Amino acid sequence: MNASPQHGSHEKQTPESARNETPQPEATTDPEVNEEHAEERVRAKVEQAASNPETDESPRKVAQENSQRAATGTHREEVAAARAAQIELANEVNDAERVRELIRRYKAENELAVADEPSEQRLTGRQGADFDLVVRGQRVSCGDTFAPREVGVRDGKIAAIEPLGAGLTGARVVELAEDETLIPGLVDTHVHVNEPGRTEWEGFATATRAAAAGGVTTIVDMPLNSVPATVNVPALEYKRLFAAQNAFVDIGFWGGAVPGNKADLRPLHDDGVFGFKCFLLHSGVDEFPHLEADEMEEALAEIKTFNSLLIVHAEDSRTIDKAPQPNGNVYDTFLKSRPRGAENIAIAEVIERTRWTGGRSHILHLSSSDAIPMIRSAKNDGLDITVETCPHYLTLLAEEIPDGATAFKCCPPVREVSNREKLWEGLIDGTIDYIVSDHSPSTLELKDLGNGDFGVAWGGVSSLQLGLSLIWTEARRRGIGLERVLQWMSTRPAERVGLRGKGRLSLGYDADMAVFAPDEGYVVDAQRLNHKNPITPYQGKVLSGKVRKTFVGGHEVDYETPTGRLISRGQA
Length: 572
Prior knowledge:
This protein has a domain at 185-502: Metal-dependent hydrolases (TIM Barrel, Alpha-Beta Barrel). It is 35% helix and 18% strand. The protein has 17 helices and 17 strands. It has a six-stranded parallel beta sheet. Strand 9, helix 8 and strand 10 (276-279) form a beta-alpha-beta unit. The two termini are 26 Å apart.
């Protein structure tokens, strides 16, 4: 989901010499002035880390030199020095005391009190009726099949499922049209919202509106690319402040595992994160440093003590260092810069470290079909390991990506048609567990649309609103039923992260539902999506399946009044 990992090629875009030239304010005897100076330094570093320089000097020059320097001792020393500088920056940006001060200021500026915090209780509109909401239709999801049913909702939960004609009464009754199907809301456990800190890329209001429009009723937000990163409890609290009043769907949070925050992992777990994310190479943003394999093993061993989950961006930096560089507007050049071997080696590390520690792990956004046999073998050996893939790897083809079309850039990359077919085989046979969006948006400027340079553009695909239609369009072409799609996009992700009340239409579960018209077609228009920035690789694509209504906790999303909740592990 970042650059050197999955979003954009930003890991070396600001040379250290340029950073060192930034004038530093002199210390004074006034503590408030010193605090302002400290904040200015942090802000400047974050802006530099997130910037996309217009000059050729940094990204292109470094890219051209990397392969010649990759195996040299000098290069190894430079890599170590750069990582040390990144960790220093991350420690400053994510400092717990600094974040507590940000929280205090935010609450003061917004006049927030305890009463303003989100409530777990769903509002009722029953007023004497049996249920708050009743949905009736000929096709209602019932696990592996669809049947004529009436669904009664009370206090945000599914309280009754009866055969059609049972005559359930409610304050509101929704009758499905003949072409409509009631499905469980999707659960997307891989979403980058980017707020606070990079809200111009995406924010909670726009992201959750997009989710609801695509039938997604629960998202779990990644610990980057927000600033600060969610690597300690104060950073989690700060992020929740921004999410609380802007949630159109339910929102959970991942924590981050980075160098030096081992002591923060258990407190984050106790505060409700669903697990911890790490990278095995540069994350694309300097405030979220990656872990080396030994450090990942240490994190796995630590979180095993409280039975949490480590989710891993698995690409090997050394393999990528020695691959051709991604300069220019030819997609095939970029594809060669992120070889399957980089994924395969890193996934092998995750498997073996999981085996050694006995921990729980999850491989993010699988794009290399080569890794499927060893993942299958690891599962057969009894390892507690799962894997996801994404709509872009299942629907797009490297052979069809035009030159300069940086909207398609993501890391790991979209690969060839033969690779795509093997990913589908892995899904069907159960080796790949589920499908999530890896929604990783950025501004149009960071996509380098003017030049179309894959070596410079940020790497990430915006698809949160489109995932169900994308997968359903491809699945039905292959003769795969909607019930399988719902397993991949709702039931299984909910089960893996411990969302016990989500992922299916069952008694006692949250009344998170979508009215889906599987035969309705439409043409993707980026300008009409709810994502903050109007860019998508699916522009102009004809898709099947349209979400017509979405209910979160029994309330229909109206895109004006946010009624979603902030959810925590153990509460959901």
